[in-house]
Protein backbone atom coordinates (compact mmCIF):
# COMPACT_ATOMS: atom_id res chain seq x y z
CA UNK A 1 0.00 0.00 0.00
CA UNK A 2 1.35 3.40 -0.97
CA UNK A 3 2.59 5.86 1.67
CA UNK A 4 2.07 9.62 1.48
CA UNK A 5 5.15 11.73 1.04
CA UNK A 6 5.88 14.42 3.58
CA UNK A 7 6.61 17.54 1.50
CA UNK A 8 3.95 20.25 1.24
CA UNK A 9 4.06 20.49 -2.56
CA UNK A 10 3.64 16.74 -3.14
CA UNK A 11 0.48 15.98 -5.09
CA UNK A 12 -0.54 12.37 -5.42
CA UNK A 13 -1.82 11.45 -8.85
CA UNK A 14 -4.29 8.56 -9.01
CA UNK A 15 -2.13 6.97 -11.68
CA UNK A 16 0.50 6.42 -8.98
CA UNK A 17 -1.89 4.47 -6.75
CA UNK A 18 -2.14 0.72 -7.32
CA UNK A 19 -5.68 -0.40 -7.98
CA UNK A 20 -7.05 -3.24 -5.89
CA UNK A 21 -7.23 -5.72 -8.76
CA UNK A 22 -3.47 -5.44 -9.29
CA UNK A 23 -2.47 -6.05 -5.66
CA UNK A 24 -2.58 -9.82 -6.31
CA UNK A 25 -2.16 -12.02 -9.32
CA UNK A 26 -5.26 -11.88 -11.50
CA UNK A 27 -7.47 -14.93 -11.28
CA UNK A 28 -10.68 -15.79 -13.08
CA UNK A 29 -13.70 -16.30 -10.81
CA UNK A 30 -14.10 -19.86 -9.56
CA UNK A 31 -16.91 -22.04 -10.87
CA UNK A 32 -18.99 -23.19 -7.92
CA UNK A 33 -21.16 -26.29 -7.75
CA UNK A 34 -24.83 -25.60 -6.87
CA UNK A 35 -24.49 -27.07 -3.37
CA UNK A 36 -21.23 -25.28 -2.51
CA UNK A 37 -21.48 -22.33 -0.09
CA UNK A 38 -20.67 -18.97 -1.67
CA UNK A 39 -19.76 -15.62 -0.26
CA UNK A 40 -22.47 -12.96 -0.66
CA UNK A 41 -19.66 -10.80 -2.08
CA UNK A 42 -18.17 -12.93 -4.86
CA UNK A 43 -14.96 -12.17 -6.74
CA UNK A 44 -15.54 -9.51 -9.39
CA UNK A 45 -12.54 -8.20 -11.26
CA UNK A 46 -14.54 -5.29 -12.69
CA UNK A 47 -15.38 -4.04 -9.18
CA UNK A 48 -11.83 -4.48 -7.93
CA UNK A 49 -10.59 -2.31 -10.79
CA UNK A 50 -12.68 0.58 -9.43
CA UNK A 51 -11.12 0.79 -5.96
CA UNK A 52 -7.74 1.30 -4.31
CA UNK A 53 -6.40 1.31 -0.75
CA UNK A 54 -3.99 4.10 0.12
CA UNK A 55 -2.48 5.36 3.36
CA UNK A 56 -1.59 9.01 3.56
CA UNK A 57 -2.71 12.64 3.73
CA UNK A 58 -6.03 12.94 1.92
CA UNK A 59 -5.45 16.64 1.17
CA UNK A 60 -2.61 15.66 -1.21
CA UNK A 61 -4.81 13.52 -3.49
CA UNK A 62 -5.49 14.88 -6.95
CA UNK A 63 -9.00 13.52 -7.45
CA UNK A 64 -12.36 15.05 -8.34
CA UNK A 65 -13.45 15.05 -4.67
CA UNK A 66 -12.29 14.09 -1.19
CA UNK A 67 -14.31 13.60 1.99
CA UNK A 68 -14.04 15.51 5.24
CA UNK A 69 -15.68 14.46 8.52
CA UNK A 70 -16.85 17.30 10.76
CA UNK A 71 -19.51 18.25 13.31
CA UNK A 72 -23.02 19.59 12.72
CA UNK A 73 -21.89 23.23 12.84
CA UNK A 74 -19.00 22.37 10.49
CA UNK A 75 -16.44 24.05 12.75
CA UNK A 76 -14.84 21.10 14.49
CA UNK A 77 -11.22 21.60 15.50
CA UNK A 78 -9.05 18.53 15.08
CA UNK A 79 -5.77 17.78 13.25
CA UNK A 80 -7.53 16.51 10.11
CA UNK A 81 -9.86 19.52 9.79
CA UNK A 82 -7.06 21.95 10.58
CA UNK A 83 -4.93 20.39 7.84
CA UNK A 84 -7.80 20.53 5.34
CA UNK A 85 -8.43 24.24 5.87
CA UNK A 86 -4.72 25.03 5.96
CA UNK A 87 -4.21 23.37 2.59
CA UNK A 88 -7.51 24.58 1.12
CA UNK A 89 -7.02 28.17 2.16
CA UNK A 90 -9.23 30.81 3.73
CA UNK A 91 -11.67 30.67 0.82
CA UNK A 92 -12.56 27.06 1.62
CA UNK A 93 -13.24 27.88 5.27
CA UNK A 94 -15.34 30.90 4.34
CA UNK A 95 -17.47 28.91 1.90
CA UNK A 96 -18.16 26.26 4.51
CA UNK A 97 -19.03 28.76 7.23
CA UNK A 98 -21.02 31.22 5.10
CA UNK A 99 -22.73 29.01 2.52
CA UNK A 100 -22.99 25.53 4.03
CA UNK A 101 -23.01 26.44 7.74
CA UNK A 102 -24.89 23.41 9.07
CA UNK A 103 -24.96 19.70 8.22
CA UNK A 104 -26.99 17.17 10.18
CA UNK A 105 -25.65 13.82 11.38
CA UNK A 106 -25.85 11.22 8.64
CA UNK A 107 -25.90 13.83 5.85
CA UNK A 108 -23.28 15.35 3.55
CA UNK A 109 -22.72 18.66 1.75
CA UNK A 110 -20.28 19.61 -0.98
CA UNK A 111 -18.02 22.64 -1.35
CA UNK A 112 -15.33 23.62 -3.82
CA UNK A 113 -11.78 22.47 -3.14
CA UNK A 114 -10.23 25.92 -3.66
CA UNK A 115 -6.44 25.52 -3.11
CA UNK A 116 -6.61 21.75 -2.68
CA UNK A 117 -5.58 19.39 -5.51
CA UNK A 118 -9.12 17.98 -5.30
CA UNK A 119 -11.79 19.96 -7.15
CA UNK A 120 -14.45 19.41 -4.46
CA UNK A 121 -14.74 18.52 -0.77
CA UNK A 122 -17.71 16.52 0.50
CA UNK A 123 -18.28 17.27 4.18
CA UNK A 124 -20.17 14.70 6.25
CA UNK A 125 -21.14 14.40 9.92
CA UNK A 126 -20.57 10.94 11.34
CA UNK A 127 -22.53 9.72 14.37
CA UNK A 128 -21.25 9.33 17.90
CA UNK A 129 -21.09 5.66 18.89
CA UNK A 130 -22.88 4.48 22.00
CA UNK A 131 -23.33 0.81 22.80
CA UNK A 132 -26.91 1.59 23.90
CA UNK A 133 -27.81 3.02 20.49
CA UNK A 134 -25.83 0.80 18.13
CA UNK A 135 -28.61 0.52 15.56
CA UNK A 136 -29.04 4.28 15.26
CA UNK A 137 -25.29 4.87 14.96
CA UNK A 138 -24.81 2.18 12.32
CA UNK A 139 -27.74 3.47 10.27
CA UNK A 140 -26.49 7.06 10.44
CA UNK A 141 -22.99 6.01 9.39
CA UNK A 142 -24.39 4.07 6.44
CA UNK A 143 -26.34 7.19 5.48
CA UNK A 144 -23.10 9.23 5.51
CA UNK A 145 -21.30 6.95 3.08
CA UNK A 146 -24.34 6.35 0.90
CA UNK A 147 -25.03 10.10 0.63
CA UNK A 148 -21.41 10.83 -0.32
CA UNK A 149 -21.59 8.26 -3.11
CA UNK A 150 -24.95 9.56 -4.31
CA UNK A 151 -23.65 13.14 -4.44
CA UNK A 152 -20.72 11.94 -6.54
CA UNK A 153 -23.01 10.09 -8.93
CA UNK A 154 -25.34 13.06 -9.36
CA UNK A 155 -22.46 15.53 -9.75
CA UNK A 156 -20.54 13.31 -12.22
CA UNK A 157 -17.58 13.01 -9.87
CA UNK A 158 -15.54 10.18 -11.33
CA UNK A 159 -12.67 9.88 -8.81
CA UNK A 160 -13.19 10.04 -5.05
CA UNK A 161 -10.82 10.02 -2.08
CA UNK A 162 -12.99 8.39 0.59
CA UNK A 163 -11.59 8.94 4.07
CA UNK A 164 -13.04 7.35 7.20
CA UNK A 165 -16.13 9.25 8.33
CA UNK A 166 -16.19 7.04 11.45
CA UNK A 167 -13.47 8.10 13.90
CA UNK A 168 -12.23 7.35 17.40
CA UNK A 169 -13.04 10.97 18.23
CA UNK A 170 -16.68 9.90 18.12
CA UNK A 171 -15.97 6.58 19.86
CA UNK A 172 -16.70 4.60 16.70
CA UNK A 173 -14.95 1.19 16.70
CA UNK A 174 -12.58 1.30 13.69
CA UNK A 175 -13.36 -2.25 12.60
CA UNK A 176 -17.13 -1.86 12.75
CA UNK A 177 -16.99 1.44 10.86
CA UNK A 178 -14.74 -0.05 8.19
CA UNK A 179 -17.22 -2.87 7.60
CA UNK A 180 -20.02 -0.37 6.95
CA UNK A 181 -17.89 1.89 4.74
CA UNK A 182 -16.52 -0.88 2.54
CA UNK A 183 -19.81 -2.79 2.32
CA UNK A 184 -21.69 0.36 1.29
CA UNK A 185 -19.20 1.05 -1.51
CA UNK A 186 -19.41 -2.55 -2.70
CA UNK A 187 -23.21 -2.49 -2.93
CA UNK A 188 -23.21 0.92 -4.62
CA UNK A 189 -20.73 -0.18 -7.27
CA UNK A 190 -22.74 -3.33 -7.92
CA UNK A 191 -25.66 -1.10 -8.95
CA UNK A 192 -23.75 1.85 -10.44
CA UNK A 193 -20.50 0.43 -11.76
CA UNK A 194 -20.11 3.07 -14.47
CA UNK A 195 -20.59 5.99 -12.06
CA UNK A 196 -16.93 5.93 -10.94
CA UNK A 197 -13.50 5.52 -12.45
CA UNK A 198 -11.82 5.11 -9.06
CA UNK A 199 -12.72 5.21 -5.35
CA UNK A 200 -9.65 5.45 -3.10
CA UNK A 201 -10.12 4.23 0.47
CA UNK A 202 -7.84 6.65 2.32
CA UNK A 203 -6.65 5.41 5.71
CA UNK A 204 -4.21 6.48 8.42
CA UNK A 205 -2.38 4.92 11.37
CA UNK A 206 -5.63 4.72 13.31
CA UNK A 207 -7.46 2.46 10.89
CA UNK A 208 -5.00 1.14 8.29
CA UNK A 209 -4.79 -2.37 9.74
CA UNK A 210 -8.58 -2.69 9.80
CA UNK A 211 -8.93 -1.68 6.16
CA UNK A 212 -6.21 -4.13 5.10
CA UNK A 213 -7.99 -6.96 6.90
CA UNK A 214 -11.61 -6.16 6.05
CA UNK A 215 -11.36 -5.03 2.42
CA UNK A 216 -10.73 -8.59 1.06
CA UNK A 217 -13.96 -9.79 2.71
CA UNK A 218 -16.05 -7.55 0.46
CA UNK A 219 -13.68 -7.25 -2.51
CA UNK A 220 -11.95 -10.67 -2.70
CA UNK A 221 -9.07 -10.80 -5.17
CA UNK A 222 -8.98 -14.56 -5.64
CA UNK A 223 -10.94 -17.68 -4.75
CA UNK A 224 -9.08 -18.23 -1.47
CA UNK A 225 -10.14 -14.79 -0.18
CA UNK A 226 -13.69 -15.42 -1.36
CA UNK A 227 -13.83 -18.72 0.54
CA UNK A 228 -12.24 -17.13 3.61
CA UNK A 229 -14.98 -14.48 3.65
CA UNK A 230 -17.73 -17.10 3.99
CA UNK A 231 -16.74 -17.81 7.61
CA UNK A 232 -15.36 -14.40 8.54
CA UNK A 233 -17.99 -11.91 7.41
CA UNK A 234 -20.08 -10.47 10.28
CA UNK A 235 -23.55 -11.87 10.88
CA UNK A 236 -25.11 -8.59 9.71
CA UNK A 237 -24.04 -7.92 6.12
CA UNK A 238 -26.83 -5.42 5.48
CA UNK A 239 -29.53 -5.36 2.83
CA UNK A 240 -29.11 -5.00 -0.92
CA UNK A 241 -27.90 -1.40 -0.42
CA UNK A 242 -25.45 -2.33 2.33
CA UNK A 243 -27.61 -0.71 5.02
CA UNK A 244 -27.41 -2.47 8.40
CA UNK A 245 -30.30 -4.88 8.88
CA UNK A 246 -32.92 -3.59 11.32
CA UNK A 247 -35.28 -6.35 12.36
CA UNK A 248 -38.00 -3.99 13.54
CA UNK A 249 -38.43 -2.59 10.02
CA UNK A 250 -39.54 -5.99 8.75
CA UNK A 251 -42.84 -5.72 10.66
CA UNK A 252 -45.51 -3.87 8.69
CA UNK A 253 -48.88 -2.54 9.88
CA UNK A 254 -51.53 -5.08 8.97
CA UNK A 255 -55.20 -5.49 9.72
CA UNK A 256 -54.17 -8.19 12.21
CA UNK A 257 -51.22 -6.70 14.09
CA UNK A 258 -51.06 -9.52 16.61
CA UNK A 259 -50.57 -12.08 13.86
CA UNK A 260 -47.76 -9.96 12.42
CA UNK A 261 -46.04 -9.82 15.79
CA UNK A 262 -46.45 -13.53 16.40
CA UNK A 263 -45.14 -14.21 12.91
CA UNK A 264 -42.05 -12.18 13.81
CA UNK A 265 -41.49 -14.37 16.87
CA UNK A 266 -41.87 -17.45 14.72
CA UNK A 267 -39.27 -16.12 12.30
CA UNK A 268 -36.80 -15.33 15.08
CA UNK A 269 -37.01 -18.62 16.91
CA UNK A 270 -38.03 -21.14 14.25
CA UNK A 271 -34.58 -22.76 14.36
CA UNK A 272 -34.64 -23.36 18.10
CA UNK A 273 -38.31 -23.63 19.11
CA UNK A 274 -40.95 -25.91 17.60
CA UNK A 275 -43.92 -23.57 17.32
CA UNK A 276 -47.47 -24.69 16.82
CA UNK A 277 -48.47 -22.73 13.71
CA UNK A 278 -52.17 -23.54 13.93
CA UNK A 279 -52.27 -22.29 17.52
CA UNK A 280 -50.75 -18.93 16.57
CA UNK A 281 -53.10 -18.52 13.65
CA UNK A 282 -56.15 -19.22 15.81
CA UNK A 283 -54.97 -16.77 18.46
CA UNK A 284 -54.31 -14.14 15.81
CA UNK A 285 -57.74 -14.66 14.26
CA UNK A 286 -59.56 -14.47 17.57
CA UNK A 287 -57.75 -11.36 18.74
CA UNK A 288 -57.86 -9.73 15.33
CA UNK A 289 -61.67 -9.90 15.24
CA UNK A 290 -62.22 -8.84 18.82
CA UNK A 291 -64.20 -5.58 18.87
CA UNK A 292 -61.69 -3.99 21.27
CA UNK A 293 -58.57 -5.30 19.54
CA UNK A 294 -57.58 -1.83 18.34
CA UNK A 295 -58.44 -0.03 21.57
CA UNK A 296 -56.21 -1.70 24.15
CA UNK A 297 -52.65 -2.93 24.38
CA UNK A 298 -52.48 -6.58 23.53
CA UNK A 299 -50.50 -8.69 26.04
CA UNK A 300 -49.19 -10.89 23.21
CA UNK A 301 -47.70 -7.85 21.48
CA UNK A 302 -46.10 -6.70 24.75
CA UNK A 303 -44.60 -10.15 25.24
CA UNK A 304 -43.36 -10.15 21.66
CA UNK A 305 -41.68 -6.79 22.14
CA UNK A 306 -39.86 -8.00 25.24
CA UNK A 307 -38.67 -11.12 23.45
CA UNK A 308 -37.38 -9.08 20.49
CA UNK A 309 -35.57 -6.72 22.86
CA UNK A 310 -33.92 -9.70 24.56
CA UNK A 311 -32.81 -11.02 21.17
CA UNK A 312 -31.40 -7.59 20.25
CA UNK A 313 -29.48 -7.44 23.54
CA UNK A 314 -27.99 -10.87 22.88
CA UNK A 315 -26.91 -9.78 19.41
CA UNK A 316 -25.17 -6.71 20.86
CA UNK A 317 -23.33 -8.92 23.34
CA UNK A 318 -22.17 -11.20 20.55
CA UNK A 319 -21.01 -8.21 18.50
CA UNK A 320 -19.09 -6.79 21.47
CA UNK A 321 -17.46 -10.17 22.07
CA UNK A 322 -16.51 -10.47 18.40
CA UNK A 323 -14.88 -7.03 18.40
CA UNK A 324 -12.94 -7.87 21.56
CA UNK A 325 -11.67 -11.15 20.11
CA UNK A 326 -10.43 -9.30 17.02
CA UNK A 327 -8.58 -6.83 19.22
CA UNK A 328 -7.12 -9.69 21.26
CA UNK A 329 -5.75 -11.32 18.11
CA UNK A 330 -4.05 -8.06 17.14
CA UNK A 331 -2.70 -7.50 20.65
CA UNK A 332 -0.88 -10.84 20.48
CA UNK A 333 0.95 -10.16 17.22
CA UNK A 334 1.52 -6.40 16.92
CA UNK A 335 4.72 -4.66 18.01
CA UNK A 336 3.80 -2.72 21.16
CA UNK A 337 7.28 -2.15 22.54
CA UNK A 338 6.90 1.64 22.34
CA UNK A 339 3.91 1.51 24.72
CA UNK A 340 5.55 -1.06 27.01
CA UNK A 341 8.67 1.13 27.31
CA UNK A 342 6.59 3.89 28.92
CA UNK A 343 6.20 1.78 32.09
CA UNK A 344 2.72 3.19 32.57
CA UNK A 345 0.94 -0.19 32.84
CA UNK A 346 2.34 -3.37 34.38
CA UNK A 347 1.52 -6.41 36.51
CA UNK A 348 2.20 -6.44 40.22
CA UNK A 349 1.92 -9.29 42.69
CA UNK A 350 -1.22 -10.03 44.71
CA UNK A 351 -3.13 -8.19 47.43
CA UNK A 352 -3.80 -9.56 50.93
CA UNK A 353 -6.70 -11.60 49.53
CA UNK A 354 -4.50 -13.22 46.87
CA UNK A 355 -6.00 -11.22 43.98
CA UNK A 356 -3.71 -10.14 41.10
CA UNK A 357 -2.69 -6.47 40.98
CA UNK A 358 -2.53 -4.34 37.84
CA UNK A 359 -0.69 -1.01 38.16
CA UNK A 360 -1.28 2.12 36.09
CA UNK A 361 1.05 5.12 36.51
CA UNK A 362 -0.70 8.24 35.21
CA UNK A 363 2.39 10.44 34.97
CA UNK A 364 4.13 7.99 32.63
CA UNK A 365 1.39 8.02 29.99
CA UNK A 366 1.77 10.82 27.36
CA UNK A 367 -1.91 11.04 26.44
CA UNK A 368 -1.40 13.75 23.79
CA UNK A 369 1.27 11.89 21.82
CA UNK A 370 0.74 8.17 22.47
CA UNK A 371 -1.10 6.07 19.90
CA UNK A 372 -4.51 5.40 21.53
CA UNK A 373 -5.09 2.27 19.47
CA UNK A 374 -1.77 0.73 20.51
CA UNK A 375 -2.45 1.73 24.12
CA UNK A 376 -5.73 -0.18 24.01
CA UNK A 377 -4.05 -3.24 22.48
CA UNK A 378 -1.33 -3.17 25.15
CA UNK A 379 -3.97 -2.87 27.88
CA UNK A 380 -5.66 -6.00 26.53
CA UNK A 381 -2.35 -7.86 26.23
CA UNK A 382 -1.44 -7.14 29.87
CA UNK A 383 -4.86 -7.75 31.41
CA UNK A 384 -6.59 -10.48 29.40
CA UNK A 385 -5.14 -13.33 31.47
CA UNK A 386 -5.77 -11.48 34.75
CA UNK A 387 -9.46 -10.74 34.39
CA UNK A 388 -10.65 -14.35 34.34
CA UNK A 389 -10.94 -14.11 38.15
CA UNK A 390 -11.10 -11.37 40.81
CA UNK A 391 -8.40 -8.72 40.43
CA UNK A 392 -7.60 -5.17 41.61
CA UNK A 393 -6.22 -2.06 39.90
CA UNK A 394 -3.91 0.49 41.50
CA UNK A 395 -3.81 3.86 39.75
CA UNK A 396 -1.10 6.29 40.83
CA UNK A 397 -2.50 9.75 40.02
CA UNK A 398 0.64 11.27 41.50
CA UNK A 399 1.86 14.44 39.74
CA UNK A 400 -0.23 13.90 36.63
CA UNK A 401 -0.81 16.97 34.47
CA UNK A 402 -2.95 17.92 31.49
CA UNK A 403 -0.58 16.09 29.12
CA UNK A 404 -1.35 12.82 30.93
CA UNK A 405 -5.13 13.13 31.05
CA UNK A 406 -7.05 10.89 28.67
CA UNK A 407 -10.23 12.28 27.10
CA UNK A 408 -13.45 11.05 28.70
CA UNK A 409 -14.71 9.94 25.27
CA UNK A 410 -11.76 7.54 25.02
CA UNK A 411 -12.56 6.09 28.45
CA UNK A 412 -16.13 5.48 27.32
CA UNK A 413 -15.02 3.77 24.13
CA UNK A 414 -12.60 1.48 25.99
CA UNK A 415 -15.22 0.67 28.61
CA UNK A 416 -17.68 -0.37 25.89
CA UNK A 417 -15.12 -2.39 23.91
CA UNK A 418 -13.65 -4.44 26.75
CA UNK A 419 -14.97 -7.90 27.47
CA UNK A 420 -17.54 -8.20 30.28
CA UNK A 421 -14.96 -10.05 32.43
CA UNK A 422 -13.10 -6.78 33.01
CA UNK A 423 -16.11 -5.22 34.73
CA UNK A 424 -17.47 -8.35 36.38
CA UNK A 425 -14.21 -9.48 38.05
CA UNK A 426 -12.76 -6.09 38.97
CA UNK A 427 -12.92 -6.14 42.77
CA UNK A 428 -11.37 -2.78 43.67
CA UNK A 429 -9.96 0.26 41.88
CA UNK A 430 -7.57 2.18 44.15
CA UNK A 431 -6.67 5.77 43.23
CA UNK A 432 -3.55 6.93 45.09
CA UNK A 433 -3.00 10.68 45.58
CA UNK A 434 -6.32 11.78 44.05
CA UNK A 435 -6.94 15.43 43.26
CA UNK A 436 -10.15 17.41 43.27
CA UNK A 437 -10.30 17.08 39.48
CA UNK A 438 -9.71 13.31 39.49
CA UNK A 439 -12.46 12.85 42.08
CA UNK A 440 -14.87 14.86 39.95
CA UNK A 441 -13.96 13.00 36.75
CA UNK A 442 -14.30 9.64 38.54
CA UNK A 443 -17.67 10.59 39.96
CA UNK A 444 -18.91 11.73 36.56
CA UNK A 445 -17.71 8.56 34.79
CA UNK A 446 -19.08 6.14 37.39
CA UNK A 447 -22.37 8.00 37.60
CA UNK A 448 -23.25 8.40 33.94
CA UNK A 449 -21.25 5.69 32.14
CA UNK A 450 -20.11 2.94 34.49
CA UNK A 451 -22.47 2.93 37.47
CA UNK A 452 -21.66 -0.73 38.16
CA UNK A 453 -18.10 0.32 39.07
CA UNK A 454 -19.04 3.14 41.45
CA UNK A 455 -18.82 1.11 44.67
CA UNK A 456 -15.48 -0.39 43.60
CA UNK A 457 -13.55 2.90 43.43
CA UNK A 458 -11.53 3.92 46.51
CA UNK A 459 -9.52 7.16 46.82
CA UNK A 460 -6.38 6.74 48.98
CA UNK A 461 -4.50 9.85 50.06
CA UNK A 462 -1.18 8.07 50.60
CA UNK A 463 0.93 5.02 49.87
CA UNK A 464 0.68 3.77 53.45
CA UNK A 465 -3.09 3.50 53.00
CA UNK A 466 -2.43 1.29 49.96
CA UNK A 467 -0.16 -0.96 52.02
CA UNK A 468 -3.08 -1.86 54.27
CA UNK A 469 -4.57 -3.62 51.22
CA UNK A 470 -1.39 -5.33 49.96
CA UNK A 471 2.15 -5.99 51.16
CA UNK A 472 4.81 -3.50 49.98
CA UNK A 473 6.82 -6.30 48.36
CA UNK A 474 3.87 -7.14 46.08
CA UNK A 475 3.83 -3.85 44.18
CA UNK A 476 6.53 -1.79 42.47
CA UNK A 477 5.90 1.81 43.57
CA UNK A 478 7.77 4.33 41.36
CA UNK A 479 10.41 6.38 43.16
CA UNK A 480 8.75 9.72 42.35
CA UNK A 481 5.52 8.46 43.95
CA UNK A 482 7.33 7.63 47.18
CA UNK A 483 9.09 10.99 47.22
CA UNK A 484 5.83 12.84 46.63
CA UNK A 485 4.14 10.81 49.37
CA UNK A 486 6.81 11.79 51.89
CA UNK A 487 6.50 15.42 50.81
CA UNK A 488 2.76 15.69 51.45
CA UNK A 489 2.26 13.13 54.25
CA UNK A 490 5.63 13.07 56.00
CA UNK A 491 8.11 10.20 56.27
CA UNK A 492 5.97 8.31 58.79
CA UNK A 493 2.24 8.51 59.32
CA UNK A 494 -0.20 6.22 61.04
CA UNK A 495 -3.04 4.64 59.13
CA UNK A 496 -6.04 3.44 61.10
CA UNK A 497 -7.65 0.36 59.60
CA UNK A 498 -11.40 0.20 60.13
CA UNK A 499 -13.58 -2.87 59.88
CA UNK A 500 -14.77 -1.67 56.48
CA UNK A 501 -11.16 -1.49 55.35
CA UNK A 502 -10.64 -5.09 56.38
CA UNK A 503 -13.46 -6.11 54.09
CA UNK A 504 -12.02 -4.42 51.04
TrEMBL record:
Belongs to the GDAP2 family. SMART domains: A1pp (SM00506), SEC14 (SM00516). It comes from Candidula unifasciata. This is Protein GDAP2 homolog. Residues 334-496 form the CRAL-TRIO domain. Residues 38-219 form the Macro domain. CDD domains: Macro_GDAP2-like, SEC14. PROSITE patterns: CRAL_TRIO, MACRO. It comes from the Eukaryota. The lineage of its organism: Eukaryota, Metazoa, Spiralia, Lophotrochozoa, Mollusca.
Amino acid sequence: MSEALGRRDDIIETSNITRWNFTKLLEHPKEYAPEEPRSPFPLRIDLNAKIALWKGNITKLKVNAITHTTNEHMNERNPDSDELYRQGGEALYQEVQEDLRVCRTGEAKMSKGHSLPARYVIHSVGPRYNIKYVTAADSALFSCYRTVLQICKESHIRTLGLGAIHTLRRNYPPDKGAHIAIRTVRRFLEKHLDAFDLIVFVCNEENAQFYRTILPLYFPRDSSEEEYAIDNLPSDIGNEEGEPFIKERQIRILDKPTFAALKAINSDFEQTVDLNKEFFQSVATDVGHHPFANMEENPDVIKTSKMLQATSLEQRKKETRRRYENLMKRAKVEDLTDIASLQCLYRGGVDRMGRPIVVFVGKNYPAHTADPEKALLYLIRVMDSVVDSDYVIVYFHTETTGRNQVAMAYFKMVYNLLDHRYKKNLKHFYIVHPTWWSRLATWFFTTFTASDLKHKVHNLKGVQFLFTKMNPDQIDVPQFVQEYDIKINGPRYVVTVSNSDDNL
